[in-house]
Amino acid sequence: MTMTELDVAKLTYTELLALRARLDREIGEKRDEELKVLADGYVKKAQAAGFTADEAFDALRPYVEDKQRGKRSDAGAPAPVMYRDPQNPQNTWSGRGRAARWLAAYEEQGRNREEFRVSGATSPQG
Asked: Which of 53, 66, 77, 92 to pair with 16, CA 20 to 30 A apart?
């Protein structure tokens, strides 16, 4: 694998933010792709052993349930909308986790995240 060397020290602050947004998107997409490959492999192994995909999924429940113990009762509730895309109001983001792709694209163009904050929305940390 060859990779073009990028001297990030020569980039401006805005260019670095745009690069980070692009990298976050690429990393997220690669993560999703790899998880799908792993899930496909798991289902194929289960089916080869004579199990259905539902049975394979049910076998994972104890691993998921162990992680869920001790979580708040509102853990399954959707997070409130913190940011909204003015071009497409259906595009929203709660401010939790990795930035939404639509927001990262705006940031890559040099726009400020706060431009898209829903009025009255407070930080997800408190």
From this structure: 92
